[in-house]
Amino acid sequence: MDSQSGFALPKPPQTNPQIDLDEENDGNSGFTLPGAPKFDPSKNTDPADSDIHLPGAPKLLPDDDLTNVNKNSSIKVFPPKNGENTNLTPVRPQSSLQRSASSNVVHVTKDTLHTIVDTTEQIGKIQKHAKFAISALNYEDLGTAEAELIKGLELLRSIKEKS
């Protein structure tokens, strides 16, 4: 240890060799760690002695007769009437109309495919110009915002004229 420079390692922990080792220390001489609390729930049956109240097992089984339970409760149990069918299955309505393919469906060909892809790309460019305009407005750059909106509007009008 260099006492003149002021740099030194911390001292190791001190142990007391006279402390008896018990079972929970597992041979760690002198060191004690907290363990799990020693509590046997079966021995503490008096609810006045305990702050913790755990729920017990239900006293009624699901197939027990519930007609006599909680007569004064706000929740009432109504058994099914004798004539009622308890196993109702949903009835699906019969549709007499047959659905046919819509006549508005556009069939994709090589020519229409190019138009669809071109339109999709143009819409993406319009969205980009709109986002740039919004960004310019966030920085109060009105000239750039106006220019981007005009570019997007011109692209939108060109798509509208083609269709």
Automatic annotation (TrEMBL):
Residues 1-104 are annotated as: Disordered. Residues 121-157 form the Vta1 C-terminal domain. InterPro entries: Vta1-like, Vta1_C. It comes from the Eukaryota. GO terms for biological process: late endosome to vacuole transport via multivesicular body sorting pathway. Residues 83-104 have a biased composition (Polar residues). GO terms for cellular component: multivesicular body. Pfam families: Vta1_C. PANTHER family: VACUOLAR PROTEIN SORTING-ASSOCIATED PROTEIN VTA1 HOMOLOG. This is Vta1 C-terminal domain-containing protein. It comes from Metschnikowia pulcherrima.
